Amino acid sequence: MYSFDYSPEWASARDREDALHRFRAAFHVPQHGGRETVYFCGNSLGLKPKRTTELVNEELNDWARLGVEGHFKPHTGWFAYHELVRDDMATVVGAMPSETVVMNHLTVNLHLLLVSFYRPTADRYKIICEGGAFPSDRYALQSQVEWHGFSADDALVELEPREGEETLRQEDILEAIEECGDSLALVMLGGVHYFTGQALDIASITAAAHAEGAYAGFDLAHAAGNLVLNLHDWNVDFAAWCSYKYLNGGPGTVGGAFIHERHVQNLHLPRFAGWWGNDPATRFTMPHRFIPVASADAWQLSNAPVLEIAALRASLELFKEATMPVLARKSLELTSYLLFVIRTVLAAKGDDKLLEVITPFESQQRGCQLSLSFAEKGKHIFDTLSAAGVIADWREPDQEGRSYGVIRVAPVPLYNSFSDVYRFGELLGSAL
Ligand SMILES: *Cc1c(COP(=O)(O)O)cnc(C)c1O
Question: Whose CA is nearest to atom 2 of ligand 1?
Fold first, then answer.
């Protein structure tokens, strides 16, 4: 469906036609040896928007100028500063503004949401998760089930790919949900798997969990800002994500959370409370009893991290302008070009076994990350690519019980170009 050509001329001509190409200039691209790197690591830490400095400095200057009165300055008062990003963040994940809050950090948010949505009983206490989940998610789930007095071995049902396969099959996920039946309390999966890059069918997994009377929550660390999401329409119960990966908020910047409207409206839902979750109408009158606001803000504990949110605003402005559907369309073409380039390089070497793409090829099952496995010399190839100015990510062979190493590459549609992909092909060719 695309007609690609592996040449620098084709790539730069495609860049000139690309309506999103201008966004690259809104970012700082790290340099290597006097030229821009091929930065394929936006799945780990997104690039810095140039405007971030200005927006953070505005708040620093207002602090210098106004002191505590900055809380009630016009437009960007710190009292409601988190509300400035609510609408744009909601749009990125396909939620209603009242279902979305920017707060804390990813693992913290998972715990806070599990307080509300993992309420195990003697009969219904199991959590379905991935066997190869990101360590922090695994620790969060393990500590939650143990905190409730269950053992992780019994309560965590870990999904594994079939023998000889790399990624989960949809039918196996649905079957595991059905098998757990009445014992299932929660399905908690990654929207996009951090290692394999596999995207899951969130809507049908959610429906299957609901059919068994369980909740469905998702870790969207690698999905937010990567895939078109429709959390509200998909009926997801809750989700959490970080903003320093595809959302370019900056290192360790504030995360996000989604709680479906039907739960947000239920003011009796158990939760851990803090003053920033209180109805803002009475927040500063310091009422004795917590009055949750009927929005996702009710899960907020502390006053908002203004400098982090200021940094995030710079990136969300760009997402608002570019829009997720347009980004996702380019993303598909860019990864398809990357696959084409890799295959062309392997064909030129006369050996298509030098590396394998373990990310599912089908467009519904991936975002912009491709995970490349190398039976041999993977680390050497990675080091050679790094020395030549490619910034990607290396995973050692023993991780996840795999016998091979993996290089994860993520051409990000907001700032990566077809020329980046072409150059990656050239450098990969010489490294091989
Ligand atoms: C990046 C990532 C995290 C990081 O968690 P923090 O709390 O932000 O440090 C957790 N889970 C997954 C799946 C991730 O990809």
Answer: 221
